[in-house]
Design a protein that fits this description.
By secondary structure, the chain is an all-alpha fold. The chain has a single domain, classed as MetI-like (MetI-like fold). The chain contains eleven helices and no strands. The radius of gyration is 25 Å and the shape is flat. One of its GO terms (biological process) is phosphate ion transport.
Length: 314
Amino acid sequence: MSSTSTAQPPARGVRRLGDRVFTSLSTGSGILILVALVLVAIFLVAQALPALTADPSEVRGGAGLVSYIGPLLFGTLLASVIAVVIAVPLSIGIALFISHYAPRRLAQALGYVVDLLAAVPSIVFGFWGLSVVGPGSRGVGEWLNEHLGFIPFFAGDASTTGKTMLVIGIVLAIMILPIMTAVNREVFLQTPRLHEEASLALGATRWEMIQQAVLPFGKSGVISGLMLGLGRALGETMAVALIISPSGRYSWELLSDNSSSTIAADIALNLPESSGVASSTLVASGLVLFVLTLAVNMLARWIVSRRAEFSGAN
């Protein structure tokens, strides 16, 4: 009587070789990212240390590190906020049109266009802002300065060159629009179909259905897309460096030539010619931008992680 051997399935809890290799590679990749982040932070701190410990008179500008970085940080935040204020409603409107209004073929074509815009180099946007948006904004700037000059944002002498903070904000808004629109589109498309049909069945119009079902469901996704766009606007370099006429002062004036510069643009313009404490000062400003951008992206990831806790039943 012959005995037949049958292949026994692997014992429960025993992991196959492929699973172990994949887990090891994934874990190693995650650790590598953390190590790279820590090394970058250590490098920035080490390079910025001479400026942090130097006498204020030795720092660029001669008034101390805070006096030098403060206006740059202010300009960075101001330009980014302007970009976000312009881009958020546009990205929501475009995403809603693609996801709930446009015919299928048109929606697909617009989706491809949005994704392609994200691949356009920033220097192209900079040239576009310098040669098209800047000159085209002079008439609008003069009108705003004449009729709304009592508002601090539109006070001062209107620029005759178009190299203003308002132009920077518009260019940055166009740059961050694709990524924000892509995130909003994907979130809106994930709205439970039952929620939309229930709203329509109760007699709601399409816009009322969007207000009742789509926007509440996608709120956290819109916020996370906003944070991702803000993170890119904070670190943009070449587009700002091509357009802005920097000045080391705090300025709310959006139409003036003497607008505050940004940290990234200041580093790009001055680092090649700097050395010693001056170079360390620029690295210190880069460290401030690094911490700010890291905080924004961590906040975005936290919001995205909360999105996983939302389901169609809650």
